Amino acid sequence: MLRITGILLFTGLFIYAAAQHSVFDPGHIGCACHKKSSHLRLEKGLKSSGLEMNQHYHRFEWFIDPSVRYIRGSVSSHHVMNHESSTLSFDLSSALNVDSVIYHGDHAGFQHGNDLLTVTLPASVPAGTSDSVSIFYQGVPPVGSGFGSFVQGSHAGIPILWTLSQPYGCSDWWPCKNGLTDKIDSIDIIVTSPLPHRTASNGLLIGEWVENGQRTCHWRHRYPIVPYLIAISVTDYAIYSDWVPHENDSIQVLNYVFPSQLGTVQNETPNLIPIMQLFNELLEPYPFILERYGHAQFGWGGGMEHQTMSFMGSFGHELMAHELAHSWFGNKITTGSWEDIWVNEGFATYLTGLTYEHMFDGYYWPIWKEMNINSVTSQAGGSVWVDDTTSVSRIFNSRLSYRKGALILHTLRWIIGDDDFFLAMRNMLSHPNHAYGYIRTQDVIGFFEEASGRDLGWYFDQWYYGQGYPIYLVQYNIHSGTQATVTLYQGQSHPSVEFFSLPVPLLLSGEGQDTLLVLDNTYNMQSFEVDPGFIPESIELDPEMWLITRNSQVVIGVDEPDSRSFVNIFPNPASDFIFIESTEPIEEIFFTEPAGKMVRTNKFRQNAGRLYQAETSQLSAGLWIVHVKTSQGIKHKKLVVAR
Hints:
Number of strands: 38
Strand order of the largest sheet: 6-5-9-3-2-12-15-14
Structural class: alpha+beta
Shape: elongated
Distance between the termini: 32 Å
Oligomer: single chain
CATH class of the largest domain: Mainly Alpha
Largest sheet: 8 strands, mixed
Helix content: 10-25%
CATH architecture of the largest domain: Orthogonal Bundle
CATH superfamily of the largest domain: Neutral Protease Domain 2
C-alpha cells in the first residue's frame, strides 16, 4: 500500500528530472506516507477468533448502493475444524446487526458483542471435519479514523463506495478471522447494486447481469488470499484492458476507471507493461497468471494492493510499480506478523526502486537512492522491526518500514552480490512452506543465508533490529610515492548499535585515473595499506550509494598527528551530534559562539577507543568553537551547526 505526497526537500532536483523525462512525476517518487496510519482503531486489539477452524472457501453476497453507506448480505464460511468445538467465532463489529446464522439448513444460536460473533453449534464437531455456516447481517459499518475501511464518497458528482481493510478493518464490514494466520483458499464475491453502477473486486468476473434496474457482478478468485486483501469498489466504472506480452501469450490488466478520466488514464496504464515484464524477469512470472491483474480507481490519494485488483488513486509510475510489486511480496507471500511489515512494504519499495535502475536509461536510479537515504538518515534512530504493533502509524512508518526496509535490502545486495540476492528472493517465492502463504523475517534471513552461504545474523541485528546508521571519517595518509594508509573512523547515530560492519567503497581519482577500493571495515579506527598507483586528488565515499550513511567526510594527505595533543571533529557541519577523536581521555567539552556565549555539555560518551560522541542539539545554527579539555590542555576547533 502506498500513500503519495510531495517531498519539498527535493523539489529542485525533481523539477530538473521532470524536464528530462516527462513520464516521471515528482509527486510519485517514494512512499512519503501512506495513510494506513490514519486508521487508528487498533487500541481495541485483536480477538482470538477462528482458532477452531481452518478456512477454505468463502461466498460473499452483498447488496451495495454506493450513494448510501450501508451493507446488507451474507457470508458463507466453509472450513475444516482444527480441533473439536461446539462453537465458531468470527471478528465482526458490534455496529453491525446479525439477522441470523444458518447451520446445515437450520437457525443456530449466536452471541454478538465486543466486536466478536460466537456461533453456538447444536453439537461438538470433531477435529478434521469439513463444515460450513452462513451469516446474514446488515448495518452501517463503524467510521474509522482518517480513511477507514468502508468508505462512501463521490467522483465528478457520482457516488462511489469502496473498502480498504488493511491492517484490521475486515471485521468492520464482514465476519472474518481478522489476523495473519489463515488464508482463504478460494472466494466468490457477488454484489448487486443499482444501475449504472458495477463492482470491481478480486479474481475473474465470471458473470454480470441486469434485472429490475440492478446490476449483479460475480467475481471468482481461486488463489489463497489473506482477509485484508478482499475488497470491493462500486461506482459507474468504465472498463478497458491492457495486455502484457508473456512468453507465447499475454497477461490481462483489467482497468476499472472513472468515466470522466477515461481518456487520461488510458494513456497512463500502458506504462505498467514494461514494469510487469521486469518483475517477471527478476523474480518469477506474475503469481496470479491463471487469472489476471487489474486496477480499480477509487477515492483516495494513494493505492492498495488488493489481490489481482489494486485500488488506485492515480496512475503514476511509482504508484503502479509499488502496488504491482505487492503481487509477489505482500500477496503471494505475506508478512506473518505486523512486526515484519517490511516483508510487504520494504520489498515492494525496493522493487519499485529497481524499475528506476532498469528503466529510463537508469536516469532516476541515483535520484531514488539519494532521496531514500536522505529520508532514512533524517532522524538519528528507528528500526525496521516494529516494536509496537498496536500503533498503525508505527507499523506503516514510511521512513522505517518502507524506505529503510528497502535500503537494507539494497545494502545486502551489495554485500552478497546480485546472483545470490535475486536467487534468495526467487527461492522465497517458490518455497512450498511460504508460496501463497506467510513468511517471517527469520525465514527471510534463512533464504539469504542459504543463497549466499554466509551467516547474516550480524547484518540483521545491526540493520533490522538495530537503529541508526554509521557516520564515517576517512583519513588517507600518503607515506611515500603512491603508497598510503587509509584509516576508517566510524560514529553511530544511535547507541543501539556499537559498530556497523560493512564493506566500504572509496573511489579514488587523480592524474587522469580512478580506481575503486572496497575496504572490509570490521572494527573502528581500522587501517588499510593501499597503493592505487597514483596520488588521488579526490576521494568519494560510496559513489554508487550502496550504504545508509550521512555527513561522512574524507581527508587526504593529513600528516600523522601529534599523539600528545591530537583532536579531530566530524561531521562538520553537524546537526544533533559530533564525534571527537582524541588521543587523550576527554575530561570536558564546551562550546562558545565567536561573540563569547558559552554552552557547557556533560552529554558526551566514549564510543570506542579514542572516539567520543557529544550532543549538539542544544546549539543554535551558526559558527561555534568546540573546546575539548584533556590532561594535555584544551584544544579548540571550529564547528558549523546546521539546522
